[in-house]
Amino acid sequence: MSRTAKILEYLVAKRRVLGIAALAFMAGLVIVDWLKEPAYSRFFWDGIGGFAAIYGFLACLVILGVAKALGYWLVYRKRDYYARYGEATDD
Amino acid sequence: MIDWLHPSVLLMLGILPLVWLHGRLRQIWQIALPALVLVVITTLDAGTRINLEFMGLELTPLRIDKLSLVFAYVIGLILIIGNIFALQVEDRAQHIAAGLYGASALGVVLAGDLITLYVFWEIMMIASVWLIWRRKTQVAYEAGMRYLLVHALGGMLLFVGVIGYYLATGSVAFEKINVDGWAFWLILVAFLINAAVPPLHAWLPDAYPEATVTGTVFLSALTTKTAVYTLMRGYPGLELLLWLGVAMTLYGVIYATLINDIRRLLSYHIISQVGYMVAGVGMGTALALNGTAAHAFTHILYKALLLMGAGAVLHMTGRSRMSDLGGLYRYMPITFLLYMVGALSISAFPLFSGFVSKTMIVEAAAVDYRGVVYLLMLLAACGTFLSTGLKLPYFTFFGKDSGLRPKEAPLNMRVAMGIAAALCFLIGIFPGTLYAILPFPVDYNAYTLSHLLKELQLLFFVGLGFVVVIRYAGGKDYIGLDVDWLYRGPGRRLAIRARDMIAEANHDIRAEFMRVLGRLQSRMGKAHFDGSLLRTWATGSMALWTALVLALVLVLNLGA
C-alpha cells in the first residue's frame, strides 16, 4: 500500500476524533456568526446568526428526500428498461 | 502579435499530422499543438478583428474582446489537460475528433458574425459525436445517434434563426440579439439546447456518460460552455434566463442525487452548474456577467477534474455504478485526493476555485435583492456538495468494500488531474489572476469574514445532514427516467409505427397502381385485337363533342 493510502487509512481510523473536531469547529462557526455584527441587512435572514447552518442542514435533508421520492414514485426503472423499446443494454 | 492567424485554423491544420504520427511522436505533438494554440491565443489583443466579405456578407471570423478571450484561454487550457489525460489512448480517430471539436469550439467563441458561428457550431456537433461513438459499444452508438439528432435539430433552428435575423436587420454581426419575432426565439432555443437547459437538456446525461473515458473530458468542457458564451453575447439581461437558470441548478442537483452511475451523476451536475451561469446571464449586471464568465472558467477545470477522476475509476475497474464500487481509497488514493480537489471546487469550498466564482453569481442576486433566487441558489449549492463532495466519493472510495483491487491510474492521467487540481487551487487562493481577465472591472472580494462564515456553515452542516441520513443516501441500482423517455420510449414507438404505416401505404398504393395499369393494358390489348380502336366515328357525334369541349373552355375562361 502506498504512503498516501496509509495516511488516508490512519485518518479513517481516527474518524471519531476528526468527527468531534469537526463538530467543535462547526459550533465555533455558529457562535462567531451569532456574536458578530451582521455584514448585510439585505434580507431578513441576514440578521439571524447561524442561519446558513440551519439552512445547510435542512437543505441536505430536503434535497435527499425530494430526490428519493421522485426516484421511487416516478423515475426509477430497472437498468434494462429501454430494451423493451428496442435499445441495446450494456449488460 | 500574430493578428492574422486564427487559432482555430492553426488547430485544424495542426491535427492533420495526427493522421500519420504514432508512438512517442504522436504523444509529443498531441500536447505541443494545444500548447502552441494557447500561446497564439495569449498573443491576441482585445480589439483584434479579421473581416472579410463573402457573397455580399460582411463576415468577421475573428473578433477578440475580453469576453471571447476568457473563454478562449480556458478552452486552450483544457485542450492541453484533456490531451495529456488521453495520451495512452491509441485511437487516432478520437484524438482528431477532440482536436477538431476544440478548434470549432474556439471558432464559436472567436466568431464575430452569426454565419461563422453557425459553421463552427455544426462542426462542433459532427466532431464531438465521435468521442461518443469511439467507445465502440452499441449503447454508445445509439446514445451518440440521439445526441446527433438533437443537435442537428438545434443547428437547423440556429440556421433558420440566422436567416430570419439577416432578413430583419440586414446584418449577420453577432452582438446582442435585438430583433423582434421568431428569429430571436429560434436562435435562443438553439443556444438553450446546447446549454442543456431543461426540458432541452436530456441529450447531455444521456450521451456524456456513454462517451469514451477521455472523450467525456472534452465534451464536458466545450459544448455547454460555448453555449453559455453565446447566451452572454446574445441575450444578456433576458429575465427568462434567470428563472430557467435557477430551475436548472435545482433540476441537475435533484437528478444527480438519485442517479447511480458516477459519470451520469457528474453530467447532471454540469446542468446544475451551467444553471448558475444561465441565471447570471439572465441577471445581466456587470457583477453577474463577470460571475458567469468566471464560473465558466473554473467550471471547465473542476468539472474536467471530476470527470477525469470518475473516468480513471472506470478505466481501472471497468465499473461506473456507485452500487458496484466502494473501498477504493486504499488502491487509488491519488485519484481520490485529486477528485476531492474538484469536488471541493464545485462545492465552492473556500480556497478552491468555485468559491471565488460561484459566490460571485450568488452575490449578484443578493445585490439585486433577489431573495428567492439567492435562497434557491444556496439550496442547489448544498445539493452539489451533498452528491459530488460527499455521496459520490464516500460510496466510491469508502463505504462497503467492493472487493475491487485496482492499480492507481496511469501516470499521464494523474498528471492531467494534477494540473487541473493545481489550477483549481491557484484560482481559489489567488482569484485576482482570474478576475483580471474578466469582461468588466471586478469590485468583489470573496474572502470576507461574512462570506467565509456563510459558506463554511452551509457546507459543514450539509455534511452533518449527510452523516445523519447516510444509510438512505447510497446509490440504488436503477436508472432514472428523464424527458428523453419521450423520444426513446413512446416517441420511438410512434416513429416506428408511422414509418411502418407509410411503408405499408406506399406498398399498397404501388400494388394498386400496377393492378390498374395491368388491367388497362389487357383492355387495350383486347381493343386492339377486336378492332374497336380502328372503327370510324360518325361526323355528327364528332361535331357534338367538339361543341361540348369548346363550350367548356368558354365557360372556364369566363369564370377566370
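The mean pLDDT of chain B is 95.
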